[in-house]
Amino acid sequence: xxxxxxxxxxxxxxxxxxxxxxxxxxxxxxxxxxxxxxxxxxxxxxxxxxxxxxxxxxxxxxxxxxxxxxxxxxxxxxxxxxxxxxxxxxxxxxxxxxxxxxxxxxxxxxxxxxxxxxxxxxxxxxxxxxxxxxxxxxxxxxxxxxxxxxxxxxxxxxxxxxxxxxxxxxxxxxxxxxxxxxxxxxxxxxxxxxxxxxxxxxxxxxxxxxxxxxxxxxxxxxxxxxxxxxxxxxxxxxxxxxxxxxxxxxxxxxxxxxxxxxxxxxxxxxxxxxxxxxxxxxxxxxxxxxxxxxxxxxxx
Length: 300
Description:
The chain is of the alpha+beta class. The chain has a single domain (about 15-160, about 210-300), classed as BirA Bifunctional Protein, domain 2, CATH 3.30.930. About 35% of the residues lie in helices and about 20% in strands. The chain contains 10 helices and 11 strands. It has an 8-stranded mixed β-sheet. The chain has a 3-stranded antiparallel β-sheet with strand order 2-4-3. A hairpin with an 8-residue loop joins β9 and β10 (about 265-270). α4 packs across α8 and α6 runs antiparallel to α7. The longest helix has 20 residues, at about 15-35. The model has no long low-confidence stretch (mean pLDDT about 90).
């Protein structure tokens, strides 16, 4: 029997049944996005490596980098947010600029259930305003998309990176894993990194005791008053949510398929007010969210 060559580990073919389901899911999400004024753009699969470098913290090691025949250092896009920042700096669109993009991204991580080295993101962002109305819009649009897809108990966890302003990066990155490895696992990781047992426990307890910032209180009020979302059902404050990417500056979001914080995440995002400015050389605030389509489809 003729055996075809395999695909590389973490890369896969999409069969017709899944491809159709993917298209149906995308269409439902896009219909909501366009209802709220988001427009489509597309960016290249390959960027100059220096465009992506220095944006992802310790996750930068997962970027696929290579050198072409001309000696240029290139990379496959890691996400759609940094390419958006470059796009805005390049074309200077009228603000506020609300866009969405659906595309493949690439990460050299260990493949496991629901995680691949090539996967599809559906990313949408609002660029040009620091108004908490934009943060609330991102959350409300996400929840409406999930309800339209049939996820009646989907929950958006929300925090503010300001709650971590006086903590070292390694503490923040460890805390972000608390729903996966538990409090004891976080403390053990911090101790392994050089903290004393008492200091590690104190750091975890300090974070657990944080309250919503004034910024979050404004966002929550808009969500309840304008969008009729319910605190604790549609969205919830989670003081341990950190999001590992270095470019987040304010409100941060993580989407769960149900009411349990330890459940599978199917998307995330937040405010990144400094990223675009690193390319445009002027302040251009932004906030956005990205669905992990592959995880969504596995559940559907």
